[in-house]
Amino acid sequence: MTLQVPTQPGRTLIAMTGSLSMIFLDATVVGVALPTMQAQLELTTATAAWIPNAFLLALASTLAIGGRLADRFGRLGVFRIALLLFAGGSIACAFATGATSIIAARAIQGIAAGLMQPASTAIVIGVFPEGKRGRAMATYFGVALLFLMAGPLIGGLILKYADWSWIFLLNIPVAVAALLLSIKLGLPPRTMARRGLDILGAVLLITGLPALVLGLEWLGHPPDDATWLPGTLAGTGGLLVFACIRHAAKAKRPLLNVRLISSRIMLGQAVVLALVSLIMSAQAIYGAIYLQEVFAFTPLQAGLGSMPLLIPVVLVIHSAGRMYDEIGVARPVIGGLIITLIGLGIEVLAIWWGSYVVLAIGMVFVGGGSTFASTPANTDVLSRAPSDQRGEVSGLVQTMRQLGSSIGIVVCVLAIGWTVRGSMPSQLPAGKTGVAAHRALEGDVAALRTLEKDDPALAETLVNARRSGMASAFIVQGIAAAIALVIAQATIRPTKGNASTGA
Known about the structure:
By secondary structure, this protein is mainly alpha-helical. It has helices spanning 9-28, 34-40, 45-48, 50-73, 75-94, 99-127, 133-161, 166-169, 171-183, 199-218, 229-250, 264-294, 299-305, 307-327, 330-353, 356-383, 390-423, 431-441, 445-454, 456-491.
């Protein structure tokens, strides 16, 4: 069935961009608000970590399902249902009163986002012809990426002037506007793709990804009476994910149709996108935390201090789209990864030197380079997919991106934790000071400020240890950028003209 181009593609782009912006914002906006939410909801540090993790894991686990449902039942219909579910989850988050309610509500948001994102991406690709897709996707992902990177700033502003619940209530007017705009779009309500839902693949994916990420996270703080559990859980999750991929390679109608991106170029770009997502998510979360811990910034100051990551996105995003339309995908992606790698090197030096100015310069390189790398790669991999399977391909690619984000955050947590523990004394003081030190070791900024008053020497030792830990986390991101660069150079050959004609 040939899709009809809407009479107002601009309205389509606005509606889809608004929905994606909510998803991206919710992935990072809670970062600076976690200490406040933890205190008001009376959560432990480990439990509070699941406020962002529940969202990311639910999103990663349902993206492929969302793409299949969009292709099977109609992209607009799935988009609207998911939009309403996301709004409901946002309201539930705002009025949560404890650990169970906030984590469950965040999971609902993640599920809705997983259903919504592939449908909206496929709609945008479908309504713009070749030659204009680069600019359209640059706007679609670029605006959303602004909200991803502005999450810490928005969270800081909300905490300064309102209650943390407004972090989630801000989604409601955006969801309503996107829903109203979608009602008048000129897309057919259904498509002709009638592929099955692959129950086995869905079960393997939904159980495997959370087990893998949870097990990896627990490696840093295994239960005292079950030290074997994290490794077992991560190993089981890895086996389930492997089984899911193996099933997908053999099944006729798999949930994750890996054959759709089995070509060297598409697979390479999908892996590059996952690695860039690892870097960007870690930057958005740990950059703001580092500014609060080491430079003693307030949440609002930390958000403002993260702006050097945001500004290059504004300046670069449309140039990246135009470059894709004019010269293809290879040079923007490879050049962007080189710039990103340079920026991460500058950031590591800045951490060791304790200079915010140098750190800000590194942020500019990372923000601009990551945008140059991700925007053309995402547009190109979807442009190469068959038109009636773009929702499925989008779900597959975005699953890889979100999994990259989740694993990246966990790996950075492990790098920080192991480095910090290796830099600290084996015995910490008892009593109130010891409690504050233990909490500060886990990243509790308020506990660190208390410790600076009660035991300045210990606080300085801990700050230096956390600085070394953050440097390790940024080195991990640099390794990811280097791997992405090698993959891009090996799989994406330079082409002339529009990228869809090159190989």
